[in-house]
Fold this sequence. Notes:
This protein is an alpha+beta fold. The protein contains twelve helices and 17 strands.
Amino acid sequence: xxxxxISRWEELAGLAPYWHALAxxxxxxxxxxxxxxxxxxxxxxxxxxxxxxxxxxxxxxxLVGLAPWYLEKTRNRGQVxxxxxxxxxxSDYLSLLCLPGREARVADALAKWxxxxxxxxxxxxxxxxxxxxxxxxxxxxxxFIERMRELGAPVYCQPGPNCWRIELPRTWHEFLAxxxxxxxxxxxxxxxxxxxxxxxxxxxxxxxxELHRGLEILMExxxxxxxxxGQRGVFEASACAAFHQEAAQQLFVDRALRLSWIELDGRPxxxxxxxxxxxxxxxxxxxxxxxxxxxxPGRLAMMATLRRAIDEGYRWFDLLRGDxxxxxxxxxxxxxxxxxxxxxxxxxxxxxxxxxxxxxxxxRWLRQGWKQN
Length: 373
């Protein structure tokens, strides 16, 4: 195995045609998502963040793995390695990328490169690798953690936020049968009163002009609902809005995006921004009209998009991170994640390393404390 460091955007963009196979059907790992994230969140004039991606090639010079990392210069932690897509946009299921069956060898190659002394000097120098919200069952990450430990690197793992996933049956009737009696009654009542009567309809963007309209509806309804709750909508940040407008267009071309909205009596009352993988639909963001709460627009959107996912044969409907009570109400089950901190094996500044780990653990404890309160 041969590992090459990629520090220039043009080099990384040159690998875009290979990302589909490496992402293995998870849209958060796609080029459309991660490449767009770097353009809007990574590259800046300050130079605080630099690409630090590692490409892994086999003996036949085939790209078999990729670590989509960047290096962030921080005041207290030094040079920190992170995954592209981290932070503000809430990317779930991030991972090291590799072809099926190559997990152990790719992880071994990346761990050896990162542990080599030459990778800890000059432009390659790193003080910590911090990864959050990685699927606890992710095979290549587990191999990488094990190899870093074997090579002497201090590795710390703690539970990250849960994602919630609904396992889909073959039919909508079977799904309803698995719900509580009261929930099933509510759904059937809404279905008869609004969908069956034609008052409520699910619209989905099928052309670029409809995608543009759908994004406008989503952002407006999301902002209106957040404002009603005294909160700031995520799309109010210019970088976030620009990222999603760009990523949505590419995901739409790749058939990895569903932008849908519910019209009630001809007026949009709910919108859903969902990513589509090989086996799962990921419910990423939504918006509802607070003036239409009496008609339960959120439940209408959930009903319509869940039923469509079942009819199209998807295995899972993923509600992503967060322990909101409504997820269990829809029979979603928690799927654990890991927050990981890895330090260089030969880190010279022991006190700095201990302070870094203590701060990392304290922030996790603080987030959990807020969540419980």
